[in-house]
Design brief:
With 575 residues, the chain is mainly alpha-helical. It contains 25 helices and five strands.
Length: 575
């Protein structure tokens, strides 16, 4: 473990140095990180533990967030504990930098222990360090990245360690870890299924290895119920399918009870055992479907068509790999290469370890398939990629230490660097490519010239009111001011999201009616962002977004100067 800690310390230092320029400007990686801090501030200010509503979003309706208090808790403890010592601003700064790095320690600590067990002590350290070369993984652990994705990965890493253990505690830990991951986000449901499939495979390979699957499902069901009660309160009817509901609890409880009964029964032939396990799973699904028929399928299946068309399809990280920009192809190929290495390790494994490497390959294949369907899930596959890459790096260093011709050493070094850092040649080529100075594409928030963080803070000087603004800048307005907003990019407020989109896409008269319906006092826009550019393009020249970007605001909007850049534009709604 000390070796793992040293490597994590080196990795954390590299991450901090790589993030230095963004930290100097205090740029949040994503609007979700901003709203997470808003939620933690509300909790520390006295909002109820079980009250997950965002009370400053959508003046017309309640907006219960689907996020978990499990992610809020470490942030609240750190900020609440440090505030009396350093003040709130400094306490938040420390927590927002330290918590992602500590989450990284949890994740890579478990992975390092797995690598030590299957490869050796030196490779355990390399598994931690090579995480830094996997951008799809490290993106979720960068400073200020306080949303839930890093904790999901840490839960998966803990479950991986549990899968690598032969004792009962391993299966129990895997079940508890998956329960935590499910309460944090229902996105980990396929991973929980993969864990169960691996334990079921052990049972089918050896009828005497029935205990691990039982322990896993019992721990998963029991921990899930306990965590639900601790973070959501007493189960009630749920209108949402995007988080764990009582119907999900019923499914896992039924499956756990069914497998427990099957374990207590006399051993059955292989086909009968497989059929019984399948019947238990089908029975659990039937119970779930009868309890929540609307939740059978994707949680976004009933999303408002306008919200889906303008917002959901533009959240690229939640879309399939074939809908991504070409920049993802190099890191994706890197993960695919690591998967090929894991197959090599399985083929080379001794008889005693071949079974575990087969399970690792199957788990890797499952996460890779999940990542192809949902791009951000490639972070889970990237986590697994650290182990074969650690083996490859160890082999390369061994070859370099054992001598040989200088040309051979140079070839080994170059090949290893190309595998570990495949994007380096691409980045080098881009540095020598001059961009057309006349080409000014629309920006993401971090690259917008409107300086959103500082500009939004200037809104605090205006009398408190309701702001009609694009979805992506809403969280920053909530963070920096006491104002309310109509909507943010969070789907449980889909009615307000639809109206914000409609307000910017529609002509002046319709937009005025929508703005008035919400009693908005101000309208705010960053004119060079991607979101309003989409509205202007889709709505045409007569749309509100197009007119505001062009500087042709309708008469019912009075310009307000707050001292920000020209691209940060504020209007007061005339009554």
């Amino acid at each position: 473990m000390p070796h793992i800690l040293k490597m994590w310390g080196l990795l954390a230092l590299i991450v901090l140095l790589a993030s230095a320029s963004r930290l100097m400007q205090w740029q949040y990686p994503d609007p979700d990180d901003v709203l997470r801090l808003v939620q933690v501030r509300d909790l520390l200010a006295g909002q109820g533990w079980f009250d997950l509503d965002q009370h400053r979003i959508d003046p017309l309706r309640d907006v219960p967030m689907h996020w978990s208090r499990l992610v809020d808790l470490p942030l609240a403890i750190a900020i609440g504990g440090l505030t009396p010592i350093f003040g709130q601003a400094t306490a938040e700064a420390i927590a927002l930098i330290a918590i992602p790095l500590l989450t990284l320690l949890v994740a890579m600590g478990f992975v390092g222990l797995v690598a030590i067990r299957v490869l050796g002590r030196e490779e355990g350290g390399w598994a931690v360090l090579v995480a830094g070369i996997l951008p799809l993984l490290m993106n979720q652990f960068q400073p200020l990245r306080i949303d839930h994705h890093g904790w999901q990965i840490a839960c998966f890493a803990a479950a991986l360690w549990g899968l690598s253990q032969e004792r009962r505690r391993g299966a129990i830990l895997a079940g508890v870890a998956m329960a935590c991951g499910l309460m944090i986000s229902i996105e980990t449901l396929p991973l929980a299924g993969l864990g169960g499939a691996i334990f079921a495979l052990r049972w089918l390979r050896d009828c005497h290895a029935r205990q691990p699957l039982t322990d896993y499902l019992q721990a998963l069901a029991a921990a899930l119920i306990a965590l639900y009660l601790a973070t959501r309160g007493w189960p009630g009817a749920s209108a949402f399918c995007d988080a764990i509901t009582p119907a999900h609890l019923g499914f896992f409880l039924a499956v756990a009870l069914g497998v427990t009964v099957l374990r207590l029964a006399p051993p059955l032939p292989l086909p009968a055992t497989a059929g019984a396990l399948a019947a238990i799973g089908a029975g659990g699904l039937a119970i779930f479907a009868s309890a929540a028929p609307g939740c059978v399928g994707t949680p976004f299946g009933t999303l408002d068509p306008v919200v889906r068309d303008f917002w959901y399809v533009n959240v690229s990280e939640g879309r399939p790999i074939w809908e991504q920009q070409s920049a993802i192809l190099v890191p994706f190929a890197q993960v695919v290469f690591a998967f090929a290495l894991s197959i090599v390790l399985w083929a080379r494994a001794s008889r005693d370890t071949r079974g575990w490497w087969l399970e690792f390959v199957l788990l890797f294949a499952g996460t890779l398939a999940l990542g192809i369907l949902v791009a951000r899930s490639l972070a889970f596959a990237s986590l697994l990629a650290t182990i074969p890459f650690a083996w490859l790096l160890g082999r390369a260093l061994e070859r370099l230490r054992t001598g040989g011709a200088a040309l051979t050493k140079a070839g080994i070094s170059l090949a290893t660097l190309l595998v570990m850092l495949p994007a380096a040649p691409v980045a080098l080529a881009q540095n020598f490519t001059r961009a057309d100075p006349g080409d000014r594409p629309v920006a993401v928030i971090n690259k917008s010239s409107c300086d959103l963080q500082n500009s939004a803070a200037k809104l605090a000087a205006l009398p408190t009111g309701t702001v009609f603004a694009p979805l992506d800048i809403g969280p920053t307005i909530l963070l920096e001011t006491d104002h309310r907003v109509i909507a943010t990019g969070h789907h449980r407020a889909e009615s307000a999201m639809r109206d914000v989109i409609g307000g910017f896409v529609a002509p002046e008269d319709t937009s005025r009616a929508i703005v008035d319906a919400y009693g908005a006092d101000y309208l705010v826009l960053c004119s060079d962002l991607f979101e309003p550019a989409v509205y202007a393009r889709r709505g045409g020249k007569s749309s509100l977004a197009a007119r505001l970007i062009a500087g042709d605001a309708p008469g019912w909007l009075e310009p307000v100067s707050v001292g920000g850049p020209d691209t940060f534009r504020v209007w007061r709604v005339a009554r």
